[in-house]
Amino acid sequence: TDDESCFYSGESLVFSASITQAQSKFNRPPLRKGFLLSEGAGAVKFISDPSGFLTIWEDPEPLCSYTIGVDPSQGVGRDRAAVYVLNQSNGRLVARIHSQLSPDDLAGEVAKLGYHYNKAWICCERNNHGHLVLFVLRQKNYPHLYRTRPLDAATGEESEEYGFNTTNQSKLVLTEKFKNACRSGAVQILDPDLIT
Question: How many CA atoms, within 13 angstroms, populate the side-chain half-sphere of residue 53?
């Protein structure tokens, strides 16, 4: 999917005018744009670059927990990866990566972003190119990856699956929960591009 079709459901926008208006009060210009440079052992350094793919609205707060949602892309054409960082204490979406990165490169950037935001929990879509992103994150031994432990129907044994499997049904549930969180203000969108 491309950026424009991500927030369309049938023929109507996912965000109603009332949600867009309610969320617009949280929108603000970013603090900075650029990218993160790895300094080894999980340490990263921000490098300012106005054409960078990382946009930051709020820097990490030492005592806050963060979650990163990752929607990978193939890294070609108009399909861009979308990554958002959520501050769990106040519901603000505080940073994003939006770029045509290959799955391998995206994994590296997401790992650096995770370390930057206090070893944030990363929840990556595992469909299609997400498998490769998750594989690379696991190879890098990133410490906090979302996973489930479903029971195998045939054997009754527990297995371990990394990432989140997006289906038509799960997409509807996620979209409705996100709309409700935006409507109530439990999630605050600082990025004006996300709701326009």
Answer: 17
